Amino acid sequence: MQFNEQAAIVTGAGQGIGYEICKQLAQQGCAVLLNDKDVALAATAAEKICQMGGKCIPLAGDAADLQFIEEMVRVSIKNFGRLTIAIANAGITLFGPFLQYPLRDFQQVMRLNLEGSFFLAQQAAKQMIGQKSGGSILFMSSVTGHQAHKNLAAYGMTKAALELLAKTLVADLSEYGITINAIAPGATVTERTLNDDGYEKTWSRITPLGRTAYTNDIANAALFMVSPASRHITGQSLVIDGGWTSVSPSPYEQ
Which of 76, 93, 3, 2 is nearest to 35 (CA)? Predict the structure, then answer.
């Protein structure tokens, strides 16, 4: 129960990696505010975690909207009395060829992946500083922030930016005892990728360890990065990809 007396906000957590992070945090004693843009998905996810014995409340809304981000912090304080962990998991992937990539898609990706993450970190840090408690902030990057991936120029750009943001904020937040890091998942089986025919088979074949990641693989890394065990780690990015970025074969060329 290493997260006893801790309270977290996790965005984009109605299913997939975000949900698994919430579930594991709650199972280890953390009080969790679970955010998703889908009202029903957020409510169902939080209810499942509570049925397992965890403390979790849902709050549906746009994780890129500053007013809503401020509301998430207020609700966390109202319900838990504190905020010690913030995980900016919400993000959007919009594939498209660079030469025809539309402005609308570009703006959507930038808004949620960057704007939402930046301002969640800002508002969470303000609360942690006011509490004089320190805390942990975690960004969700991707292997596409390390290696080129066809039709993902805008997405990969945001993920690389998040890793630099984590590094940069060391200069702003370390004096307050706040660590800020990123994790970069590789191919991961989630509800979304299961709809992609052949996804798991293709990525398992080109991943050195012989399989894709599962949500618990990514959640295990996320929990380490916000746990007391990593209190002297900040400004870093941890890749969880079964070795793919070491060799980087393309799924399009197999």
Answer: 76
